[in-house]
Give the backbone structure.
Amino acid sequence: MSARGAILLALCAAGCTCGAPPRTEIPTYDAPRARGPLVIDGVLDEATWEHAPQTERFVHTMSGAQAEPASRARLSWDADALYVEFEVEDDFLRCDLEGHDPHLWEQDTVEIMVDPDGDGRNYFEMQLSPTDQVFDTRYASRRVPGPFGVTSWDSGLRGRCVVRGAVNDDADDEGYTAELAIPWSAFTGHAPPRAGETWRVALYVLDVRRDGWRGVGWSPPLVGDFHVPERFGRVRFTD
């Protein structure tokens, strides 16, 4: 088993808590058009974020049950880019990975996958760590090419995190906010969406712990793998 496979299995086994009934339906989110320019600084003080609704709280990726870390997201868009912000509650933050396309899923990171036409092929994966490191890749079909897709692809993603606490020490952490802008030019072969169109999108938070990993998602894949395009949520672009 690959290191990434072992991490995914650990994620599926950890983090599930009792509470609300499992949520297994594929969610739909109405992403409003941005209300003016966004400064990608991790500070969510623009009118766009004030008026964009939050997603449902992310759930355990295998069962759909309520799980930690408590995480939600909001999305918006304009003629230039797709905007995503994540809010993550996390009392233990670790990310010391650097370089070109570091394996951010091994530590703390947020993750977005996008399948513009929803056919399960030619989808895109992007991650941003609390230390503002980026991993991005694209796939022709589910996990093809392996093991990590076409990592030479560059999304042009701009992202910034604001950490409540400090990464990579033993201070009391509280979590972080991640703000991302993904230009439409990233989605090779696809025109920018128009109002009323729907794209398939997956949102995840991966969280390293002292004794393993855990992960949650907006739309749970319900299997031991995050790459399940037919389980991606639906993002409808509204005007």
